[in-house]
């Protein structure tokens, strides 16, 4: 049995994974990581997710006394004590039951809002707050200049941008929840109102576009599709934005958004919607939360016109995010693992 080590097991993609874990896990020397690398063929992927991963978690119980769960449903599979990192809580009855399992030593959340909501729901397990981080050490001034100069040459003096793994139109997504989370229909409608008055504005989407988004871009020259960018290079693109956009229509329930922290760390002012993830931006005085889509477009127009306002918001965000490196977060996390393992 590895008494001084902590086990972790999870599925892993060749491209995009949960940023918190892809950044944190390699920085935690006390954690032995067991990756289930997903096969490209979907039947094999199903076996890996539903059979092999649970079997591996049970097997690790024989070697390790402590397990770091980044998927709450794994907790009951492990015989020893577990720590559940709740990066993306759903607040479902099944999730809350798992959080109160007898072997759960601690729950880790990213904000006080999530902890308060869990307490209100009756969860009495110890809860620690370890926030999200940002890898500002990956920002290269020469790379940012290269990206920015390329965008200017193609046209567009003010760049408003959004990055996420993929972009779709609502009708292309089978589930209404996903459609509201990742569809860009409302964003495109709002930005069309922006360019009607601010012809020098450009919308950049950094991520993989769907066929519908590709077709839309053909007839709207103010939309620039960057395509998939590895997360190791994303912050260079974000740093080239003049305005960071957060057009989320679904409130996530209070957990912290890494995207918003990245905007702030890069000195990019934010225009967002009325969702609780924007609370941190408002606390930092680094952006604006629009009441509706009309106001969303109006605020983008105002930031296009007012350079001093953009700079002031951006600098406040940079100052707020200054102490949020992943190295700092990992040090805090490592201390928690040591205390519980001890």
Widest sheet: strand ordering: 2-1-3-4-5-6
What's the number of domains? 2
Q: How does the major sheet shape up? A: 6 strands, parallel
Beginning-to-end CA distance, first to last residue: 15 Å
Q: Return the CATH class of the largest domain.
A: Alpha Beta
Q: Which stretches are poorly predicted, pLDDT < 50 over at least 5 residues? A: none
Mean pLDDT: 93
Radius of gyration: 21 Å
Q: What is the fold-level CATH name, i.e. the topology of the largest domain?
A: Rossmann fold
Task: Summarize the amount of helix as a percent range.
Answer: 40-55%
CATH superfamily of the largest domain, by name, is Glycogen Phosphorylase B
By DSSP, the count of extended strands is 12
What does this structure look like?
- The chain is of the alpha/beta class and 342 residues long.
- It has two domains: 145 residues, Rossmann fold (3-Layer(aba) Sandwich); 185 residues, Glycogen Phosphorylase B (Rossmann fold, 3-Layer(aba) Sandwich), CATH 3.40.50.
- Helices cover 43% and strands 19% of the residues.
- The strands form two sheets. Strands 2-1-3-4-5-6 form a six-stranded parallel sheet, with helices on both faces. Strands 9-8-7-10-11-12 form a six-stranded parallel sheet, sandwiched between helices.
- Strand 8, helix 8 and strand 9 form a beta-alpha-beta unit.
- Helix 7 crosses helix 12.
- The longest helix has 19 residues.
- The two termini are 15 Å apart.
């Amino acid at each position: 049995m590895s008494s001084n080590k902590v086990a972790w097991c999870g599925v892993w993609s060749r491209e995009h994974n949960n940023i918190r874990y892809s950044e944190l896990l390699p920085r935690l020397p006390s954690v032995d990581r067991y990756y289930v690398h997903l096969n490209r063929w979907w039947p094999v992927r199903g076996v890996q997710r539903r059979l092999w991963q649970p079997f591996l978690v049970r097997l690790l119980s024989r070697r390790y006394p402590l397990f770091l769960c980044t998927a709450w449903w794994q907790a009951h599979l492990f015989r020893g004590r577990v720590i559940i990192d709740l990066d993306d809580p759903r607040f479902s009855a099944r999730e809350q039951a798992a959080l109160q399992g007898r072997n759960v030593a601690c729950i880790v959340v990213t904000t006080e809002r999530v902890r308060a909501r869990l307490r209100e729901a009756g969860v009495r397990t110890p809860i620690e707050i370890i926030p999200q981080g940002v890898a500002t050490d990956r920002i290269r001034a020469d790379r940012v200049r290269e990206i920015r100069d390329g965008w200017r040459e193609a046209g567009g003096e003010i760049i408003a941008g959004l990055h996420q793994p993929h972009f779709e139109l609502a009708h292309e997504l089978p589930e209404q929840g996903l459609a509201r989370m990742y569809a860009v229909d409302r964003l495109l409608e709002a930005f069309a109102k922006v360019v009607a008055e601010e012809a020098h504005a450009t919308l950049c989407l950094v991520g993989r576009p769907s066929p519908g988004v590709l077709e839309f871009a053909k007839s709207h020259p103010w939309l620039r599709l960057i395509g998939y960018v590895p997360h190791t290079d994303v912050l260079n693109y974000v740093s080239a934005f003049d305005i960071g956009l957060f057009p989320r229509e679904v409130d996530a329930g209070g957990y912290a958004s890494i995207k918003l922290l990245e905007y702030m760390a890069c000195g990019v002012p934010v225009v967002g919607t009325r969702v609780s993830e924007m609370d941190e931006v408002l606390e930092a005085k680094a952006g604006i939360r629009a009441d509706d889509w009309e106001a969303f477009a109006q605020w983008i127009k105002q930031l296009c016109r007012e350079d001093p306002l953009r700079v002031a918001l951006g600098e406040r965000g940079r100052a707020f995010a200054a102490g949020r490196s992943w190295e700092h977060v990992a040090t805090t996390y490592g201390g928690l693992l040591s205390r519980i393992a001890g």
